[in-house]
Design goal:
By secondary structure, this protein is mostly beta strands. The protein is built from one helix and 27 strands. InterPro entries: WD40/YVTN_repeat-like_dom_sf, Xyloglucanase_GH74.
Length: 359
């Protein structure tokens, strides 16, 4: 078995491969000098497909595909894979997320500006979801620090009609009719940057990441801009579970791929510096749905690189790997459910996203 780790950075894509997740071979940069904000590894067919959103300052943004684990890339398109229709008066800046639901060839992409895209040919061409793009709430959405993007897509594992999406700053939205309509799903999520008496709005929360429990489909974990939450009803309502964490601020959250109620969080000190809490890189794990959290050091030395929203992932193996990438170019892996970590690679450009799979 080969493990593939795709590392998107501010200056290119790096692919790491390993047979034991202890010794890794790391490629030279691919799409060098391009920002790689999103990577997808589609393993639903016998031949895996890699999808990459590369944003070149010279050539502009596009989506690229590889069916041979990154040896060759389909970079030629009759037309741009993702492009806004002329009547929208908008331009595609980059994809922030690829997601795969229960329908074999369907791929979803979330983009900047705020848009959801659906592909029915494994990511070669995409169609804009008009109901979300034209949503009545859209005038109230504002840019987060990272830009006006749909950065999180959470398909339902068995029901292709149901999905959650999240954005900064617009909040969580849900659909149960294949995207024909969308409902704000933020009940219980605090927008602490709003004035007193207005901190629980219908929408407008600055969501950072959402991850679905692998064993209980209606259980979802969420990292907000201030607040860590769990929903037990598919996102309809949310309860704060940050009590056992050193801070409720951060960017990433990840559900375990095979254990119910287990999730991971990498807290960030809420200050102008935005460093790891106490200057130590730690990932906190809950095994009881957020009732309690246990801290595990990734490194036992001072460290100042934080984990961004898509830089925490799993390969979903039977003995899963948990991968952590940081803004100072290091990537770590745990193969004991997060008890301990070892370095995969260091000294890369800032890590924007990581994705891993058995291939």
């Amino acid at each position: 078995m080969t493990y593939l780790l795709a590392i998107g950075t501010g200056k290119g894509l790096f692919l790491a491969t390993s047979s034991d997740r202890e010794n890794w071979e790391v490629s030279n940069p691919i799409f060098a000098v391009s920002g790689v904000y999103a990577v997808g590894i589609d393993t639903r067919r016998s031949t895996p497909r890699l999808l990459v959103s590369a944003d070149s300052a010279h050539y502009g943004p596009s989506v690229y595909l590889s069916d041979d684990l990154g040896k060759n890339w389909d970079e030629s398109h009759d037309s741009a894979p993702i492009a806004f229709p002329a009547d929208t008066d908008a331009s595609f800046k980059r994809a922030w997320q690829f997601a795969f639901g229960p329908e074999e060839d369907v791929v979803y992409a979330g983009s900047e500006p705020w848009a959801l895209w659906r592909s029915e040919d494994r990511g070669r061409t995409y169609e804009l979801n008009r109901p979300l793009w034209e949503h009545a709430d859209k005038p109230d959405w504002n840019e987060g620090a990272g830009g006006p993007a749909i950065h999180t897509i959470v398909p339902h594992p068995t029901d292709p009609a149901s999905m959650l999406i999240a954005m900064s700053t617009g909040g969580v939205y849900s659909t149960t009719d294949r995207g024909a309509s969308w409902t704000a799903s933020n009940t219980g999520i605090k927008a602490e940057f709003m004035p007193e008496g207005q901190q629980f709005p219908d929408h407008g929360q600055c969501i950072h990441k959402v991850s679905r429990d692998s064993q209980v489909a209606e259980r979802v974990f969420l990292q907000n801009h201030g607040g860590v939450y769990r929903s037990d009803d598919g996102g309809a309502t949310w309860n704060d579970i940050a009590g056992g964490l050193p801070t409720d601020f951060g960017f990433s959250i990840l559900a375990h791929p095979g254990r119910a109620n287990v999730a991971y969080n990498a807290p960030v000190a809420f200050s102008d510096n935005r460093f790891p809490v106490d200057g130590t890189l730690r990932v906190h794990r809950t095994e009881d749905g957020g009732a309690s959290w246990t801290a595990h050091d990734v490194l036992d030395e001072p460290y100042y690189g934080i984990v961004l929203r898509d830089a925490l992932c799993t390969d979903a193996a039977e003995r899963p790997g948990i991968y952590v990438g940081t803004r100072v170019g290091d990537v770590f892996v745990s193969t004991d459910d997060g008890d301990s970590y070892r370095q995969v690679v260091g000294h890369l450009p800032d890590v924007l996203c990581v994705r891993a799979a058995e291939v």
